[in-house]
Amino acid sequence: MTLRIGRIAYLNVAPYFHYLRDEGFVGEIVAGVPSELNAMLAEGIIDACPSSSFEYGLHAEKYCLLPGHSISSVGPVHSVLLFSPGPLNMLAGGEIAITGESSTSINLLQILLEEFCGINDVTFRVPDDGKVEDHLVEGRGSLLIGDRALAAANNCPPGLRITDLGALWYHYTGLPFVFALWILRREVVETLPAEIQRLAGQLHKSRDRAFSHLTDMSRQLSSGTGFTCRQLAEYWRGMSYDLSDGHLEGLRLYFTLCHKHGLLENIPELHFFPAT
């Protein structure tokens, strides 16, 4: 049997996937936004993917984590951005438009506002037409993630303030923020351990190759994105793809604060696929 893995349809996962086939992965790759992949992982449509940290927190009993891999930031992330007409305190009592693509980022914003900024009365809403960018252009509070955030920052209307949630988290905690983890379904860990072990090695090799050939990768992927090769390379260099002790400390703090603010019933334990 071969693995079915999910691929987030954002540029930030390119270091994992661009060379993955070249490094020997022969399974199926399914693309989607984080919320779609979370649902497919929960339903068993896919076996593993770099998925929302909050999804793991909700259903930790169903999953294991692949050690050493994440999609994180240590400071600015550049692609999880809050656009506001002024300082954050102006958002009190108002509404923030969201895409609904990532529960991790939405809950991170709620925690940052409530825990650290003392703002407890903001409403989050997905626009009926899904066009958060229209709210942004009108000067209203808006949260964008992934490639849409990168594009909006490149074309931000004058007068809007951009708050990078990765940078704000780091400002208050001094810790990395883990936006996504490589999550594995537990039954797959039990039935296909050799395939998962191979995937772990292939991901490491793909990452290493990507960062050794960032110029080539950015040249191949920049077409149609609206970003230059240099911008893409700088974006990837600014991300963190590790899962160190510091990352785990930041992840545990996020889960603890999600529990404190009623977003998680329990603080999940971290279960890892055993290295061999």
Properties at a glance:
alpha/beta, 276 residues, 3-stranded antiparallel beta sheet
Oligomer: single chain
User: Helix content range of the residues, please?
Assistant: 40-55%
Q: How are helices and strands ordered from N to C?
A: EHEHEHEEEHEHEHEHEHHHHH
Q: Report the sheet-strand fraction.
A: 15-25%
Major β-sheet annotation: 3 strands, antiparallel
As laid out across the biggest beta sheet, the strand order is: 3-10-4
Rg for CA atoms: 18 Å
Structural class: alpha/beta
Low-confidence stretches: none
User: Per the principal axes of the C-alpha atoms, what is the gross shape?
Assistant: globular
The separation of the N and C termini measures 20 Å
User: Mean of the pLDDT scores?
Assistant: 93
Got a strand count? 10
The number of distinct helices, counting runs of at least 4 residues, comes to: 12
List the SSEs and their pairings.
Layout: E1 4-8, H1 14-17, E2 28-32, H2 34-43, E3 48-52, H3 53-58, E4 63-73, E5 80-84, E6 95-97, H4 103-116, E7 123-125, H5 132-137, E8 142-145, H6 146-154, E9 161-164, H7 165-173, E10 177-185, H8 186-191, H9 193-212, H10 214-221, H11 229-238, H12 245-260
Parallel strand pairs: 1-2, 6-7
Antiparallel strand pairs: 3-10, 4-10, 5-8, 5-9
